[in-house]
Amino acid sequence: MLKFVLMITKKGQTRLSHYFERREIKDRPTLEADLLRKIRQRSLDQCSFFDYQDLRITYRLYQNIYIIVGTDTEENGISVLEFIQLFMEVLHTYFSPITEIDIMYNLDKVHMVLEEIVTNGCIVETCIANILEPMRLMDSKK
């Protein structure tokens, strides 16, 4: 089960944080900074997942943004990497191509895409066309 999804720049600026389970707001910046520090310490030849406290952290770097996903320790790291790939493919298809600026100025749409894919921490949709359909409907109303 997914616990959170973060998008953090290499400089340490959080562009997206979506938590699927309750976590104190005052604890979130500390968690995000600590995860980014641990990820930066890892070498390029290390795998993209590691255990942190009671979580399994899976991450991937796209352009200058780390996509970081926290899950249960039992979750399959490869499947979470596939989820990250799907999420970025959907964003890339919608924004064509996705940039940090798109994320900053269209945060509501990025959250909407994420919520189409994940409900209550469980991945419920993997078809890109089905994920983008509500977005396209919303855009056609304008």
TrEMBL record:
<dbReference type="GO" id="GO:0006886">
    <property type="term" value="P:intracellular protein transport"/>
</dbReference>
<comment type="similarity">
    <text>Belongs to the adaptor complexes small subunit family.</text>
</comment>
<keyword id="KW-0472">Membrane</keyword>
<dbReference type="InterPro" id="IPR011012">
    <property type="entry name" value="Longin-like_dom_sf"/>
</dbReference>
<protein>
    <recommendedName>
        <fullName>AP complex subunit sigma</fullName>
    </recommendedName>
</protein>
<dbReference type="GO" id="GO:0005737">
    <property type="term" value="C:cytoplasm"/>
</dbReference>
<dbReference type="InterPro" id="IPR022775">
    <property type="entry name" value="AP_mu_sigma_su"/>
</dbReference>
<keyword id="KW-0813">Transport</keyword>
<keyword id="KW-0653">Protein transport</keyword>
<comment type="function">
    <text>Component of the adaptor protein complex 4 (AP-4). Adaptor protein complexes are vesicle coat components involved both in vesicle formation and cargo selection. They control the vesicular transport of proteins in different trafficking pathways. AP-4 forms a non clathrin-associated coat on vesicles departing the trans-Golgi network (TGN) and may be involved in the targeting of proteins from the trans-Golgi network (TGN) to the endosomal-lysosomal system.</text>
</comment>
<comment type="subunit">
    <text>Adaptor protein complex 4 (AP-4) is a heterotetramer composed of two large adaptins (epsilon-type subunit AP4E1 and beta-type subunit AP4B1), a medium adaptin (mu-type subunit AP4M1) and a small adaptin (sigma-type AP4S1).</text>
</comment>
<feature type="domain" description="AP complex mu/sigma subunit">
    <location>
        <begin position="1"/>
        <end position="140"/>
    </location>
</feature>
<dbReference type="GO" id="GO:0012505">
    <property type="term" value="C:endomembrane system"/>
</dbReference>
<dbReference type="InterPro" id="IPR016635">
    <property type="entry name" value="AP_complex_ssu"/>
</dbReference>
<dbReference type="Pfam" id="PF01217">
    <property type="entry name" value="Clat_adaptor_s"/>
</dbReference>
